[in-house]
Amino acid sequence: MDYIEMAIQIETDGETFYKEQADKYEGKEISKVFRLLSNEERKHRELLENFSKKIDYTIPEAKEEIDFDYLFKNEEDFKIDTETDPKQIDVYRFALQKENESIELYNKMRELAKDDEERVLLDFLIKQEQNHYKLFNNIVELLRKAEEWVESAEFGIREEY
User: Fold this and answer.
1) Residue 26 sits in which domain range?
2) Is 37 helix (H, G, I), strand (E, B) or coil?
């Protein structure tokens, strides 16, 4: 299996995983995040497929980052989701790991790129996966801090964002 086939498989697996999570948490705010990511992974897969088949493709204009504050308008939206399933943080950690694996693969592929066209595509995919990684890292940090903090203010000073 060459690198492009591996990348297509990773994007396909990501699309499937995020869609399954979106369905599992349907009706909760986090479902929106998983649907968004599933759609992005599908687009990445299609880009890679078109690139490998030498079909004309266009790299979309990339957003700088996924807007975490837009997805979770207030703490209550997020709190409800995580309280219903305490193991949900494991899903986010797994996603974090998979996004990191994608970044590593795309960086290796970039080192082996034959031309600028290939490098531009890989730079786009690296940036996209880094944005996904940042999103899940923010979620994991939020949950980790929630687990560690004591709710009463009398127990000390808390780190500010």
Assistant:
1) 3-55+70-147
2) helix
What digits encode the pLDDT tens for the residues 35-90?
A: 999 999 999 999 999 999 989 888 888 665 665 554 455 445 545 454 545 577 88
Ramachandran category for residue 60: left, alpha or beta (phi over 0 → left; psi -120 to 50 → alpha): beta
CATH of the domain at 9: 1.20.1260.10
* Domain assignment present for 43: yes
24 in a structural domain: yes
The model's pLDDT over 76-134, given as tens digits with 9 standing for 90+, comes to 554 545 454 557 788 899 999 999 999 999 999 999 999 999 999 999 999 999 999 99
- Distance from C-alpha of 32 to C-alpha of 118, rounded to nearest angstrom: 31
Alpha-carbon distances, residue 81 vs 23, 31, 91, 92, 130 (angstroms):
14, 9, 13, 12, 24
How many domains are contained in the chain? Answer: 1
